[in-house]
Amino acid sequence: MAINHLKLLRKKYGMALSSDLPEPLRHCRAVEVLERSLKRDRLGHGILLHGESLSSLETIVKAIATDRLQAKNDPYLHPDCFTLRPSGKARKIRIGSGADESNTMRKLVIDVQKTANQGGRKVGIIFEADRMNVQSANAFLKTLEEPPAGTTLFLITTRPYDLLDTIRSRCLNFRIPSQAEGIEHSNWEDWSIDYRAWLGRLLKGPSKESVPHIMLGAYGLMSRFQSILSEVTKHAWAEQKKLLAEHVSNDEKEAMQAGLGRGYRKQLYGEIESLTAGFCRDVEVLNPGRLPVNAQIRVIQALESSAGLLELNLNEATALELFFLKSLRLWTAK
Predict the structure, then answer these.
(1) How many Cβ atoms are within 10 Å of 78's Cβ, its own excluded?
(2) d(CA 107, CA 261)
(3) Is the residue at 181 inside a domain?
(4) pTM value > 0.90
(5) Are residues 86 and 212 in the same domain?
(6) CA 327, 332, 333, 334: dihedral to nearest 10 degrees?
(7) Are 157 and 237 in a shared domain?
């Protein structure tokens, strides 16, 4: 259906922007506020979308960009839509050297300053905005302070507090929940069961007979976790690549794939947190007072620490190993 036709239907029958979104995202508070702003044509010039799922964030920004640009197809292909993603081994958003260098902050800033190709609105989108280096952040801040007319600038990130305070304060901030979808992998349910069983062995306390099973179990869980993450990311990337335009560069593809992996990794870490909390609730219900003091809180902190180290580009296997070894020590502490 053409976008103009869709907008007429919305106006006549009360159809909403949220009708284009997956069910879990339609009724969140942030979407309702954004929807009202679009309807009144009072959307701010700087929008910061943050949450746990990069996929959910991109779904929202894509729907808004479609509306703002009245795009008939993929809004990222619209001549007045400009995107920027992390690149390179360090996966940073670079300032760049000139207007001819693609996927740099300087290129984005120059593009949004130009007159709209189709005489309407312009949209700039920075994916994983927390990956801006200092030079890029300062260059973007200047544009945010004096935004070009008719331009909406979006930043999406899972780590909003890694952005400059001055950038956050100049944007409307919206926290977007994940789509609350389970992990779609045939081995994830078995992994979850085995993880809870491993926690149970820790709670019983190590013994001469159980220590080998505990250690082998930990490294087995780590290996399977990495395999599941790799396969989930690989499948999702294969599907996403089918939708990419031909002009997307290899650097941009690498950034997209890496961002996808980060999103699924964060989701899987969230699943581990939920499994741990669920295990603790069950133990407390069946055996009140059996849990080590503050064990759950300290284990969750260890998981968050591991996730934080991954954001600093620590080797994934090393970060996982640290979490499991800390878990072993915390659960068996007397």
Answers:
(1) 22
(2) 26
(3) no
(4) no
(5) no
(6) 160
(7) no
